[in-house]
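Each field is set out as follows.
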Amino acid sequence: MNATDPTAVIAIMDRLGAAARAASAAMAAASTAQKNAALLSLARLIRAEAAMLASENARDLHAAQAARLAAPLLDRLRLSEPVIAQMAEGCEQVAALPDPIGEMTDLRRRPSGITVGHMRVPLGVFGMVYESRPNVTVDAASLAIKSGNAAILRGGSEAVHSNAALMRLVTRALIEAGLPAEAVQGVPTTDRAAVGRLITMPQYVDVIIPRGGKGLIERIAAEATVPVIKHLDGNCHVYVDAGADLELALRVTDNAKTQKYSPCNAAESLLVHRDIAAAFLPRLGALFAAKGVEMRTDSEAQALLAAVSGATLVAASDADWSEEYLAPIISIKLVASLDEAIAHINRYGSHHTDAILTANHPHAMRFLREVDSASVMVNASTRFADGFEYGLGAEIGISTDKFHARGPVGLEGLTSMKWVVFGQGEVRT
């Protein structure tokens, strides 16, 4: 549906919001068994309907190719067999996780006789706005179900058929488990005004989670009257320290950049200590050249890479140090020290994910403490910065905010804590 009447869009969104608010009460009270049953049903349905999902996705891919959608977005749009299998597996992983709702912690008895502590509870209703990736529909739905929330999902118009097909399966799974069908709803219009309404109806929605390009997220952060969990971009760094294991550094850096170019956790910037650069960079440059990766370098790195056969070298501008390419392009800079590397990352990075490759334990610990990012890694690929890889089952997104949730947002990121008090008739004097 593509509504153009502003009044009609408001009516659609208010109807979705009221239904979600009502469903959130039932979801907060739902048993773990019910929620898990819905997730397992959804996994089964995804596998059973894989051919249908691929067919609907093909319609979106055909239209996106005709519209000349950028290659990284096409890659994110594609529901390949492995992606469909991973969606089903993700539902099962979330079902296997402990149910956080109702968990009580920090219980302690006070001198007055009362016992106080915290209880974990759902946020209520979250709205999600995302582009390209139809698998996000399943990630969001599965986490909403297990965390006892209701959700309103607004995917991009380029994935309209894929998202609609997935939403039909989500609705079937909810109904099979005896949960309200309105617990997870898709916005049935591609009208952009629907997003404007979704992010400005705090009477129905408790938090907004945008997942997409920088322009989308900046718009939502600027216009929303509902709290937003966000990250703007993923300029992820790999720093190769002096004395790093060369084979490890080559393997990890190559994976961080080339395993997949389009995700926000792919490495976009490489920093190399001068003491290891002559041994490391020409070998890495040969790997990148063979894969068609363009290297945007400072003058020192370019001198070391000049002799690499087939290398595409471009002099880096200052803007390159901040860029999220989402493409076979990487910026490369030589540094004199760990201090310089940390300072560069904190200045130019996006506070998403950064890694140090080192054999020096004190350097590793300083990097973990001093790099101001949501995920900080030692001797591992930035591509691991993902809710699935972190054991969250799925992620609703990655937050570079510092309040409430940071890094991959899983079940706990969709909950909050409230105080609970137990007494035996105590009164305050």
Observations:
- The CA atoms of residues 161 and 241 lie 47 Å apart.
- The chain is about 45% helix and 20% strand.
- The mean pLDDT is 95.
